[in-house]
Design a protein that fits this description.
The chain is an all-alpha fold. The protein has 19 helices and no strands. The protein is globular.
Length: 399
């Protein structure tokens, strides 16, 4: 069948399952993953793996838009208002998870270093959508929520940077033609620097051109073309498309006079792209490999949680945050979805020897985290005394 036929099946299936899963108060991304699993080769095989592989351009585009959006959170004025404490907490909760997963995989489970550091880097990412949904549902307010919202806003940016560094190191380690010397150590820095320079330059160009766009349709076209060109150029130059697109978003956020308009205009295009992206990720979930990665998957799930909770506590302690923030912030950072899935799919290309295992571990963990994460967030908010019982439930209890 033609690729467009499969795209249609993917979009419809993702939308239906996203709607179904929302009735259970779960994030729609979980529904998209489940839809992909159902229509993929693991169950119904309505979309064979060969067909999904031909749609890689959708995944590449989605990742570009995700990174572009995340970059917008690096607005210097906003970061100044948040203060150093938020930055400290974010760095600790992100990087502690990375280091603990790296240590467990390399030292305890004796896994290859490229595989371990790629998997560990993905541990930094957190999915804000599920957390924010719980906050809104229970009308939560207080120090914990005030800390949580900015942390999840910049958490993924830290994760993408950690991933970019880890990916470059992993590729260097797997290149048999290279000996590990000072040049090998400097290569990641060179590629990351190049990605940021190109992204900043393109961000300046987009900010300038956007001032002369006539209407939203023209601005949307310019913005889409910019992201597409950037992703293609980054892949050609063998640098991280994620870091490059993130640099564009950060640049536009800080220098464009109409930055909100420029950054938000792509939202008119991205919803179906994201539905297709997550559903395709579910299609590529190979259930047969689960038995081979069972121990590794369990270790990743458990030690990432330990890293998040411990890192958030240490960061909040160092930042002298209120006691409720120190005790409960880590529990609200468990969900993992979009960015983690995207990074796993990038890892499959960067380290093909371990790609299938990494993707399966992350996709399996994502489903578990998205099921358990909102519940843990709810518990943390109530323990902190910042959540309110819904009026409907209160009336039922009293009656």
């Amino acid at each position: 069948m033609h690729s467009l036929y499969y795209v249609g099946i993917i979009l419809i299936s993702g939308l239906i399952m996203g709607k179904v899963i929302s009735y259970f108060k779960l994030p729609k991304v979980t529904g998209y993953l489940i839809a992909g699993l159902i229509i993929g080769p693991s169950i119904l095989n309505l979309v064979p793996s060969t067909a999904a592989a031909k749609l890689s351009v959708i995944s590449e585009a989605a990742l570009g838009f995700i990174a572009y959006s995340i970059g917008s959170s690096f607005n210097f004025d906003n970061l100044k208002q948040l203060g150093n404490g938020i930055i400290i907490i974010t760095l600790f909760e992100s990087l502690t998870a990375v280091l603990i997963v790296d240590f467990v995989m390399i030292v305890i489970l004796k896994q290859p270093v490229p595989f371990s550091i790629m998997l560990g880097a993905i541990a930094a990412a957190t999915a804000p959508a599920a957390t924010i949904m719980v906050i809104k549902q229970y009308r939560a307010k207080g120090p914990l929520v005030n800390t949580l919202l900015p942390v999840v806003a910049i958490d993924d940016a830290v994760g993408i940077m950690a991933f970019g560094i880890s990916m470059t190191i992993a590729k260097s380690l797997m290149d048999a033609s290279q000996t590990f010397n000072i040049k090998t150590l400097l290569l990641p820095i060179k590629e990351i620097f190049l990605a940021f320079i190109i992204g900043i330059a393109i961000g300046f160009a987009l900010s300038f051109i956007s001032k002369y766009s006539e209407g939203e349709d023209q601005l949307l076209t310019i913005s889409l073309a910019t992201v597409f060109i950037t992703v293609g150029l980054a892949i050609k130059l063998n640098i991280s498309p994620l870091l490059t697109c993130m640099a564009i978003g950060a640049t536009v956020s800080n220098i464009a006079p109409n930055s909100t308009r420029v950054l938000s205009i792509v939202d008119k295009f991205t919803p179906p792209v994201f539905v297709a992206f997550f559903t395709i990720a579910g299609i590529e979930l190979n259930l047969s490999i689960l038995k081979h990665v069972g121990l590794l998957g369990a270790a990743y799930i458990i030690f990432r949680v330990i890293g998040k909770v411990l890192g958030a506590y240490l960061g909040a302690k160092l930042a002298k945050s209120p006691a409720v923030v120190q005790k409960y912030l880590g529990l609200t950072l468990i969900p993992q979805a979009g960015v983690a899935i995207g990074l796993a799919m990038v890892a499959e290309t960067a380290v093909p020897e371990f790609g299938a295992a990494i993707r399966t571990i992350i996709l399996s963990a994502t489903v578990i985290y998205e099921l358990v994460g909102p519940l843990l967030t709810k518990i943390a908010l109530f323990k902190a005394g910042e959540a309110h019982i819904e009026q409907k439930s209160k009336l039922t209890i009293e009656g």
